[in-house]
């Protein structure tokens, strides 16, 4: 084991800090189960009214009633960073009028959700999901003394 990895540890953060870290990022992964297999899709996200809005290349019909979203930022050069996981009931935004509604997040200038959260694909694999967070967990990867 290298001396760098020996001096690293994971430190749990509060739910409030985890959500703060999540808001500082825009890219993550939508995770769900489909036909007894774990599916992971890249996603772009924002928080709105306490809910997480995610745009991911997934078929709307494949999104289950509960989903997980994971975001991290790891800096290899310094071996530091963080990871946040949010899970809860999920609903697909299928109404094109709702997807075109002005986005309420500060700094977005009232742009529609679909334009604010740019996607990777368009068509049947372009889905906007709203997750109502029930569990929020987060960890920081920090340098420290081994115990």
Major beta-sheet overview: 6 strands, antiparallel, barrel
Radius of gyration: 17 Å
Using the coordinates shown, work out and report the CATH topology: Pnp Oxidase, Chain A
Terminal residue distance: 16 Å
**Count of DSSP strands:** 8
Could you describe the 3D structure shown?
Helices cover 14% and strands 47% of the residues. By secondary structure, the protein is mostly beta strands. It has a single domain (3-136), classed as Pnp Oxidase, Chain A. A 6-stranded antiparallel β-barrel has the order 2-3-4-7-6-5. Strand 2 and strand 3 (37-48) form a beta hairpin. The longest helix is centred in the N-terminal third of the chain and has 9 residues, at 15-23. Residues 101-112 have low confidence and may be disordered.
State the main characteristics:
4 helices, about 150 residues, mainly beta, Pnp Oxidase, Chain A, six-stranded antiparallel β-barrel, 8 strands
Task: Summarize the helices and strands and which ones pair or pack.
Elements: H1 3-6, E1 8-13, H2 15-23, E2 27-34, E3 37-48, E4 51-56, E5 66-75, E6 80-92, H3 96-99, H4 113-116, E7 127-131, E8 135-143
Antiparallel strand pairs: 1-8, 2-3, 2-5, 3-4, 4-7, 5-6, 6-7, 6-8
Short description:
The protein has helices at about 5, 15-25, 95-100, 115; strands at about 10-15, 25-35, 35-50, 50-55, 65-75, 80-90, 125-130, 135-145. With about 150 residues, the chain is mainly beta.
């Amino acid at each position: 084991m290298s001396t760098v990895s020996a001096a690293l540890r994971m430190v749990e953060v509060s739910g409030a800090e985890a959500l703060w870290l999540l808001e500082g990022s825009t890219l993550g992964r939508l995770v769900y189960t489909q036909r007894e297999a774990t599916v992971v899709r890249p996603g772009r996200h924002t928080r709105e009214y306490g809910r997480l809005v995610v745009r991911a290349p997934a078929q709307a019909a494949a999104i289950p009633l509960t989903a997980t979203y994971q975001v991290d930022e790891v800096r290899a050069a310094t071996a530091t960073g963080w990871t946040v996981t949010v899970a809860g009931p999920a609903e697909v935004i299928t109404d094109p009028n709702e997807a075109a509604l002005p986005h309420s997040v500060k700094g977005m200038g009232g742009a529609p959700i679909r334009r604010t959260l740019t996607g990777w694909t368009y068509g049947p694999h372009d889905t906007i999901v709203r997750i109502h967070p029930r569990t929020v967990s987060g960890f920081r990867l920090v340098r420290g003394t081994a115990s």
